[in-house]
Write the structure tokens for this entry.
Amino acid sequence: MCLRELCTVLLMAAVCGCAGYSATIRSVEQQLVVQNYPAALAMLEKLYANSSRDAVLYNLNKGMLLRMNGDYSASNTALETAKQLMERLDAISVTEQTSSLLINDQVKSYEGEMFEKLVLHFYKILNYLALGKKDEARVEVLQADQRLKEIKQQLSRDVLPEEAGVRYLSGIVFEDLGEWSDAMIAYRKAYAAYKHGLDGFKLSIPYSLKLALLRLADRQGLYDELAQFTQEFGIQQWETIAERQTKGELVIVVNSGLAPVKLPNSATVISPSSGQLIRISVPVYVTRPIAVSGVNYQVADQQGQLEMMEIVDSLALKALERNMPSIIARAAARQAIKYQATKQGNQENAALGLLVNIGGALLEQADTRSWTTLPQSIYMARIALDPGTYNLSLNIVSSYDGNNQTLDVGGLEVRAGKNTYQSLHWIPPNVTNLPGSPREYTRVNATYGIR
Amino acid sequence: MNNQAMITLRTFQVLVICLALVALTACSKKVTRIDVEETKDLSGDWNDTDSRLVSKEMIGDVLSRPWIADFVQKSGKKPAVIVGEIRNLSHEHIAVGTFVGDMERELINSGRVDFVASKTEREEVREERTDQDLHASEQTRKAMGEEYGADYMLKGSINTIIDSEGDEQVKYYQVDLTLISLADNRKSWVGQKKIKKFIEKNKLRL
């Protein structure tokens, strides 16, 4: 009995010392806070480059870090690798399913969440736009569309709130290329997605999207739709496509903060009937402190606010919520198998049973992997400007210490009838202030007898 | 009961051994050289075979049509062509340069068509000429303003239509190339190549 309790104490110590993904990635985040992207990349490389089951995750994170560092082309290479790996992982692995039932979910290859697959396209599009490769961005737009078709087929859904951001960006790309009908379709789908997610995703419909819908409905002669939109939006005046052709558009995207992290939520109890140690560990999302309360821009004599176009926090939380039943089912199945194995061990030899029991409990670790270098939220502004060269000044209104941050970007060239794209990622120092893991629930002092 | 538990433990052991074996076998690499003409479809995406099929079709077509003879008859010289933009409007990142390069080579080597350097190539050449103006001797120096103006521009696009259901996918590619007369915007030749593939994805992996 004494031995068992001692083992339990040792087990708790070992479990606490076993660092999952969310703990190890923190060393990368610490470099991000001080804007040392090369160091962050080196750290990431050291931690995950050699793990084949984390290959998708490694490439996703690498893609984000590279684009923070301004290396858009290399970022796209990494994201493309991640995309192709994800496609390969679409097939169900026989061995991984079995081993995850025996050990834990961490032994499975990271496949990426549905929203992560969409956001991947979003950033690839942005990267191509930053490189001035608009046709390549268009390829990515079509791939996102194809991906969405497949996802919707699987889920039997017509509209997904998760598609809002990537659809809106798709519309911008089509409009930039002068493909009005495709732009109209993408804007419409974005509008439907924003509307659909109004409650669950805490996101409102961007004003710039409303203007785009009016502009294109007008251009395409869709007068019924135009009348409906003017009434719905309460907007009576907007610039037509023809009026905008003499101007260029500056599209600014600001990524703020970092995505939420998964922490393990575990419980260990001793079964009163068999005296076996039973441990369950599942992931739980913890959002970071809100990084930014708003972003203002000033360019030439124009000033205004960037609009929020996507909240990654909501996307991530919804995704885990959707996956939770299967995570719990797997954990329960694992317990059943381990329970049987321990029982068998006990019958041969009490020490063997104990070993199997402790080993099984030790291996029970929540899978805390997720694409954590994504931003917390994405802000955007579309500014119509006369052709010329401009300096952009962004004022990031911090929501944690009241110290606003001003970022200046110079030499932005705006050409008539074309869009100019500028995106950046701002990470405030408080992103690493995470609440600790939820306290592990333990009940090990129960009375029991070895059977 | 004891038997059943025994089986569970045995199954557990067998599975662990299987897993270890799978992990061990995945470490060797093998390279085999294959002919460039050989068709090897791996992912179902656009590959070298598609590019080759397109250039073969296009070259055969462009050389057999009457536009070259018509031009020679009218102007008494070979037509000069410049490669304009070939837009990739497909779902994939396709290297358009490969089959355009094939076409260029075949057309030049046929001796019936001249090609003029493209916009980016021209810029580099001009830079060199400016440099010659300053540094090269008078006998070898090339003068500016002597460039050969193209008669035709080759433009085109690649489009795809994808239809998928579950693990099955049909991919349809259509490559369109057009030769536009720079003098009057008339289209002198239109080439088209269609490729269709049926792709079945794996449902299971190791």
Notes: Residues 2-25 of chain B form the longest helix (24 residues). Chain B touches chain A at residues 2, 5-6, 8-9, 12, 15-16, 18-19, 22, 43, 87-93, 160, 162, 164-166, 201-206 (CB under 8 Å). The helical segments of chain B are 2-25, 48-64, 67-75, 97-109, 119-135.
